[in-house]
Design goal:
mainly alpha
């Protein structure tokens, strides 16, 4: 768990990044045609939505830290001491999990040209959910992992008309 100061700084960083995305980066880098038939299909729509969500989440993190800070100042502090060995093992476990996550992302990126984006997304979601997160809801993970990438593929390829990278060995209709 992060300390309150780190969480406050993380919230401020996410908030500042999202504001920079909304005001400067997206308008300057995303090329949009003058008229789009459907606003949802505009190239800048989803980056703006994600940036807006980031702004909201960063702002909520800052507000939550500020409220907890004023709450702890008014009440008596409760000291919770962790052993250094337990803390070191926790950070080592986190480092190993992060290395596995990076390896998974490299594998995901490497599989896209071979089996395509939908199939590699299925594999990455299932791997991450089942092995990294150690989910107990295995049937839900399997169904979402198989169905969600395919639904997204159908929407973007067949409805929105966006080309989705297909693999050399496996192609979807």
């Amino acid at each position: 768990m992060l300390t309150q100061k780190k969480e406050l700084m993380l919230g401020l960083g996410v908030f500042a990044l999202s504001i920079a995305l909304l005001i400067v980066i997206i308008p300057e880098t995303v090329v949009s045609p003058g008229v789009v038939a459907n606003a949802v299909l505009a190239p800048s729509f989803w980056p703006n939505v994600v940036s807006g969500m980031m702004c909201l989440i960063g702002g909520l993190m800052v507000v939550q830290r500020m409220l907890e800070r004023s709450e702890t100042e008014s009440s008596t502090p409760v000291s919770e001491v962790k052993g250094k060995a337990q803390e070191a093992q926790s950070s080592m476990e986190t480092a190993v999990r992060m290395l596995w996550f990076v390896a998974m992302l490299v594998g995901y990126y490497s599989l896209i040209p071979v089996i395509g984006l939908p199939a590699s997304s299925v594999a990455a979601f299932l791997f991450f959910s089942l092995f990294q997160c150690r989910s107990t809801y295995r049937m839900t993970v399997l169904s979402v992992g198989l169905i969600l990438p395919l639904i997204l593929y159908v929407f973007f390829f067949h409805i929105a008309g966006v080309d989705i990278p297909q693999g050399d060995y496996w192609r979807l209709p």
